[in-house]
Amino acid sequence: MLAITLTACGTTNQNFITGENQRGAYSWQQERELGAQADQQIIAQFGLYTEDPELTAYVERVAQNVLETSAYTDPSTPAEVRSTPFVFRILDSPVVNAFALPGGFMYVTRGLLTYLENEAQLAVVLGHEIGHVLGRHSSEQAARAQLNQFGLIGAAVLGGVVGGGNVAQGILEYGSTGLQLLQLKWGRGAEREADMAGVAYAEFAGYDAAEAARFFRALDRLSAQSGGGSIPNFMSTHPDPAEREQTIPQLANSDPRYQGEMINAEEYLRQIEGVVVGEDPRQGYVEDGAFYHPELRFRFDVPRGWQTQNSPMAFVMGEPNGQALIQLTLASQSSAEAAARELASQQGVQVGRGGATTVNGNRAYRLDGAAQQQNGTIGFVATFIEYGGNVYQILGLTAQNALQQYGGTFVDVSESFSRLTDQRYLNRQPSRLEVTRAPGGATISSLLRGRTLPSGLTEEEVAIMNQVELNQPIPTGQRVKLPE
Ligand SMILES: [Zn+2]
User: Fold this and answer.
1) Among 128, 358, 390, 442, which residue carries the largest CB count within 10 Å?
2) What is the mean pLDDT of the chain?
3) Which residues have CB atoms below 5 A from the ion given as ligand 1?
4) 70 CA distance to ligand 1 centroid (A)?
C-alpha cells in the first residue's frame, strides 16, 4: 500500500547507503525539517538524560567515529548531507530502545545503555540507526503519521481522545505508538539494510561488530520474559532478535575488509557506571494509591485499580476498562482562571458550570462541559490549581453520557491535590548502576541478595543486562552491573 502511494507521487530520492535511487517522497531538506520538529516532541515526551555530560559526550564520540566511516562522508553523498550535523541524544527513559528520525536525529535510551556490555555493541546499535537515516527509510506516510501522533500529546488534549471505546488505553499506549509507526513501516528490507550498514560502519571504525550478537541474544530474552504490551519498542520494531543473533556474526565475517578488533568493555562500563536504572522516582511515582512528585512537592490520589503512565509532559490515569481517563499537565498560563478560559475557548468546547474555588488552600478554578469530536461528544471536568509558581491542570475525560458516573471521581482526584511534606516520599532517590568485580563462585542471583531492585526491574532482567544466566557462575573478577 505504501509503495503504491509513493509510486503515484512519482518521486524518487537517493539512498545514500547504496547510492541508488529509490521510492521516496522527501528531499533531504524536508527530511531535516520533519526530523527537527519530531525531535522537539521526542525531547518533550521523554526528556533528555542530562545529568551525566561525560556519558553524553562519550556516546557522541563513538557515534561520530562510526559516522565518519559511513556513507555520510562518501564523496558520492551530496554535499548538503555531508555538511548536515547529525544529532545523537540519550533519552531519560528506562525503556530499552534506539531509533532514528529522518534528517539525522538519533536516540538511545539510558535503559538501552544499561543492557550493552561494551563499546563495540554500542557502535553497532548506533551504526544501525545511522543506516536508517542514510538509507532514508522514512516515508511520507510514516513521517506524517508520526507527527500526528505526537501532535496529540500537545496542548489540545481533547483532540486526542475519541468518544467511548477504549479511550484510556489509547492514550496510555500512544507514547510508544508514535515511535512504532515510524519504524514498523520501515519493514524488514530496511532493517536488514540498516543491520548491514551498522556492521560495516562499526567494522570500518575499528570495532568487532560480531560482539553485537550477544546483545541481540539479550534482547531476545528480554522479549521472551516481558509479555504482551510491555515489550520494549526496540524489539517490536526490529527483526527477530534470535535471527539477528545468527546474521550479525555472519555479516561481520562477510567481507575481508572487516578487520575491527576493538571491543572496549572496560571503558564502556566505566562510562555507564552510575547511570540511573529503572524508573526515576524524582520525576514522580505511584505508591500506596497516590502519585508523588518529590521535586515539584505535591501528591494526589490515584483511583483504585486505574492504570497509570508518567512522562515529563503528562501523568495519565486510565480507568481499567478504558472508559475514562484523568490527565495531569502543566498549563502555560499564569493563573488558574486564565488557563480555564483558554480551555473554554477551544473549538467545539461547550462549558457547563465553572467558577473559582480553592483546593487545599491553593487558588483554583474548575469547569465542566462537553467537547465535540469527530466520533462523538466527550464530557470533561477540568480543575486548574495554582501551586508552587505553576498552574496544574487536572483534566478528567469520558464519553458525555458517562460523565454522571465518573464526574465525582474527577473532582475527588483534583480535591486530593496537596503539598507533599512527608520526608519518606520527598527523599526518594533513583537506583543507579554499580559496576563491580564478581567474587569467586558468584552468580547474578547471589550478588542480588540483600539488594532492593528498583520498581519494575526483575532479577532476570539484571541477568539479561549482564548478558548471562541468573544462576550461571561468573568468572572470578569479571565485571558485573548491578542496581545499587
Ligand atoms: Zn532499525
Assistant:
1) 128
2) 83
3) 191, 194
4) 16
